[in-house]
Write the structure tokens for this entry.
Amino acid sequence: MGSLFKTNDGFHIVGYTNMNGADDMYIVQMNTNFEVNWSKTISSSSGERAMDLVQKPNGNLLIAGWGKSGSLHICLKSILLEISAIFLV
């Protein structure tokens, strides 16, 4: 599941995947022809979901989401990540 965002370098999809039994943030970057340039999964043992994205003027991505925490994974935590454009190369 994910949401599509228009950015300076094309489009991004942010959302989550569940390949290992826990939700992991998932980010996909596509060019203006919707061809995938790269994708990243960000995970921990508790599970996270990316919900929103903003691209800063310097090209960095701000990604907002939420995750589960606590021993029973019943508490929710807010997540705000800033990912450098250099990291994404």
About this structure: The radius of gyration is 13 Å. Residues 13 and 38 are 11 Å apart (CA to CA).
